[in-house]
YkgJ family cysteine cluster protein (Neisseria animalis), 85 residues
Amino acid sequence: MVFTPFPCTACGKCCRLVGNNEQTAFLDRGDGVCRHFDEATNLCGIYADRPLVCRVEDYYRTYFSEQTTWEDFVRINVEICRKLP
């Protein structure tokens, strides 16, 4: 299955809030921010080896592909992204 890429803007909001989610809390460096997040660039320091929860397409395939379409999954997640502080 080929996906339209997730429209990530690399704003870094989700990486700054990993401590707020039980699925990403293991990445928390102690202040809610991902320990692999480079605040100067808003990029991931381990992008090629990032965990499944950070790989949107793979995460969708693993947990949601039988429950919803990719398009709906993207729409829902973009809405969530826009609401992040």
Q: What stands out?
A: The chain has one domain: 14-83. The mean pLDDT is 94. The CA atoms of residues 15 and 24 lie 9 Å apart. The radius of gyration is 13 Å.
